[in-house]
Amino acid sequence: MPINHQTTITLNGVPQYVSIRAERDRLPLLLYLHGGPGDAALPLVLKYNGELEKHFTVVVWEQRGAGKSYYDFGDSVVTIATFLEDLHALVTLLTERYRQEKLYLVGHSWGSVLGLTYTEKHPEKVRAYVGCGQVVNMKKASRTGCEFAAAHASKKALARLKKADCTYTGENWLDDLLFVTKQVVKHGGSLYGRTNYNPLVTPFLFSRYYSIPDLIRRQKGSLQAIKRLWPELMEVNFEGRTEFGAPVIFVEGRHDVHVSSALAKEYYDTIQTEKQFHWFERSCHFPQWSEHEKFHTLMVDLLH
Question: What are the Serine aminopeptidase S33 domain coordinates in residue numbering (predicted)?
Fold first, then answer.
């Protein structure tokens, strides 16, 4: 019997949107953690990773404040720990409801911070963790992004980049971050073979699950999350954390300069847990979508 639940679940007092889909009952749970922060991804997972529903019960969570879960944070305290608490509540709910002890966890970019941290804290809940565009050391990754942007910039852009604080701690950190990111995208360091994000935007425009108001909320939620969480995110550094208690798989775009796939490989080599590393040669920061067929094969292989 096919499963297609599009629902809102209250996690730690906050209503949050969750999609649960599978071609039949009793398939192993797979929970997808989107990037950003605030970069809700439901239409993208449905478009590019829909084949996974033949093998998994695929759960896509639009995290608090993101996409269809948007609300104004106001004066409330929202930190990385807040999202980890939400994640634990969701994992507990899913494993109890579907009577499974563990699930597969896929984290992309910001979601990889949540996913790897959660795996470290709760390995008893994780069959395997898959990190796509894995964050390792945000300060080092930010320098890599700035260096890439400067190497490819026009004279005008280079003049602006020279004024940017790539630690993103100055008074104009948000403007600096948005400008550097724009340059990385423009020069092909984010989405392989593209100088824009059009292939990542179109699925939202034609999704049966996303309305125009949802699109507006998604944009508001993304900016809100970046403003609130980026300073804390810049302090993230997994170096030296090498034991996770569950299998760890890194899926890295060979050309990713957003969070630096080179850093991910260096870090991977230090991990002591059961592990796998997969280069996706025709990908940058979005290997799970740029090479979705290869990603699908890799995920199905995990079942065996």
Answer: 55-285
